[in-house]
Prior knowledge:
alpha/beta, Metallo-beta-lactamase, Chain A, Rossmann fold, 7-stranded mixed β-sheet, 5-stranded mixed β-sheet
Amino acid sequence: MNLYGHNNNWLMVDCGVTFRAPLDRLDDQNPSAKLFDMVAPDPVFIENRQESLAGIVITHAHEDHVGAVPALWKRFKCPIYTTKFTAEVLRRKLYMTDIAELVQIIVVDPGTTIDIGPFTVSWLAITHSLPDAHALFIQTPVATVFHTADWKIDFNPITDQPFNAAPFKQLAKMRPTAMVCDSTNALRSGYSLSEGDCELGLLRTIQQCQGRAIVTCFGSNVARLISLARVAAKTGRYMTLLGRSLENMYSIARTTGYWPDELKISHRRDIGYLPKHEVLIVATGSQGEPRAALGRLAGDNHPDCEVEAGDTVIFSSITIPGNEKPIEKMVENLKSKGLNVIQSNESVHTIHASGHPNQEDLSDMYEWVSPKVAIPVHGEPEHLHANALIAKQQGVGTQLVGLNGDLYQLAPSIKLIKNAVKVGRIDITDLNKSIRT
Length: 437
């Protein structure tokens, strides 16, 4: 949840949620801390200034950028601006609430520039790990900001057009005051891997599978689903989806035109009748969730399919910190049943690609955009400082490294004001349930 302020007006960029997290960020690494199912940023600052909130812009459809909207929108009551894929994801979330008809969603075309209050916002297409991700160029009479959101340089992103540096090089001519930039992979050298590399690695891996191939990945990764559907066609396997989030994303991709018509998905109820070597299952549960599809397969209690010795489970994902133990437990359970297990960090082929920029991606972007100020976001302090160092090496004169609640003043002078705003986390688990009809 990012807030940009100018002349007593505010613009919110993204409104996300996280799962199974403590309310105190300092407890993130505390194994004994109480966890809450659904947690959002505390919006009290902007809630108290609701009449000054001009609008909400959602950059892309990942839960940590859009997931809190249904629970929190009544506190804001303003229009939401986003592009078509993200709009469809949000609409489906809102269908489950009593506010669906109240929320004004304004669908924006890529490349569009719109005035939202005193903010002139331009949408710049950028590659990430799902369709329709966008960076923003936000202009006011006194300062301008290039807000990257989540991104990477990908010349074969599967779902979107290849990364195009030209729009970002054009920004340099406008002398952006600041670049607010994703730091998630700022400790990783080189360039981020392409989704196209991942598709080739999955093909080589699945070609070697003798029995069923079961792939688990993040449910929102439409590019990965398309890659797996292509792999299924090339290896003579029928692909099915196990898990509500996967089925929903597949449906949204079809509705919005991102799913290739020639790629077919088999119904999950048919998959149990097929020869094992003709089956490719894509299942939710990459983080060891026992109630997700992979967890149910591992526990022999999935209604549509059983796995057997000789089948192969492929983790086309990474381990999110904090989920090590449940994943280890699931892997041990699968191996005890005689299944082959391939995790992305152990695979000889590339079977997972991050959606975030590595050091060379960051270096290139800072060179192209040439902002006066670098504001690293997304990540732990070591990630933010690594991002700032890259910006400094690329000639960015000022780097502001702060924390949640700090105010980054860009005009009339540039400075960081610590602890300017009360921030924290709130539990929206029950609130999210209560708005369901």
